[in-house]
């Protein structure tokens, strides 16, 4: 653990701040955690979308679900691809298509797993080496 105060050679006191490095590390850990959560949820969503009974074009229906992990905003969006009427109809329902709510139900059913994934990343801030191992410095998640 780095010390917040250093004694210089001439006996002076120097205060050291690691706030910037800590904020950067937290932001990168959050981004990496969101990316893992998105992959986990999309896998679960794809399983449910492909297993729905009486579905024609199950691959097309499953491919409508995507995620977007935005670096600048630091958030995660999971949704249905733009202009995919089959994905929206399944999720929201219409007069001719019953509501299936695959996306909402999957997220709600896996809340504990989402918390566990995020907790594993955020708790690693206590150990700088462990945190560095979770973050890929090549710009990827």
What does this molecule look like?
With 141 residues, the protein is α+β, with helices and mostly antiparallel strands. The protein is 53% helix and 13% strand. The chain has six helices and four strands. The chain has helices at residues 19-51, 58-63, 85-92, 102-109, 111-123, 128-134, and strands at 5-7, 13-15, 65-70, 75-80. The strands form two sheets. A two-stranded antiparallel sheet has the order 1-2. β3 (65-70) and β4 form a beta hairpin. α1 crosses α4 (102-109) and α1 (19-51) runs antiparallel to α5 (111-123). The longest helix has 33 residues, at 19-51. The two termini are 26 Å apart. The mean pLDDT is 78.
Percent helix range:
40-55%
Nearest-integer average pLDDT: 78
Q: What about the largest sheet?
A: 2 strands, antiparallel
Q: Which segments are poorly predicted (pLDDT under 50) over 5 or more consecutive residues?
A: none
Largest sheet strand order:
1-2
Number of H/I helices: 6
Write the layout of secondary structure elements.
Layout (H helix, E strand, L loop, with lengths): L4 E3 L5 E3 L3 H33 L6 H6 L1 E6 L4 E6 L4 H8 L9 H8 L1 H13 L4 H7 L7
Antiparallel strand pairs: 1-2, 3-4
Helix pairs in contact: 1-4, 1-5
Question: Could you list some keywords that capture this structure?
Answer:
141 residues, alpha+beta, two-stranded antiparallel ribbon, 6 helices, 53% helix, elongated
């Amino acid at each position: 653990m780095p010390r917040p105060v250093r004694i210089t050679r001439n006996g002076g006191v120097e205060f050291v701040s690691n706030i910037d490095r800590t904020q950067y590390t937290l932001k990168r850990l959050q981004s990496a955690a969101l990316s893992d959560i998105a992959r986990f949820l999309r896998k679960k969503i794809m399983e449910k979308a492909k297993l729905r009974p009486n579905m024609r074009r199950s691959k097309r229906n499953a491919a409508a679900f995507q995620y977007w992990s935005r670096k600048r905003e630091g958030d995660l969006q999971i949704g249905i691809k733009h202009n995919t009427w089959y994905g929206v109809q399944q999720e929201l329902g219409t007069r001719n298509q019953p509501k299936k709510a695959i996306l909402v139900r999957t997220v709600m059913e896996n809340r504990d797993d989402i918390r566990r994934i995020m907790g594993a990343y955020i708790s690693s801030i206590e150990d700088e080496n462990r945190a560095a191992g979770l973050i890929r410095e090549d710009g990827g998640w």
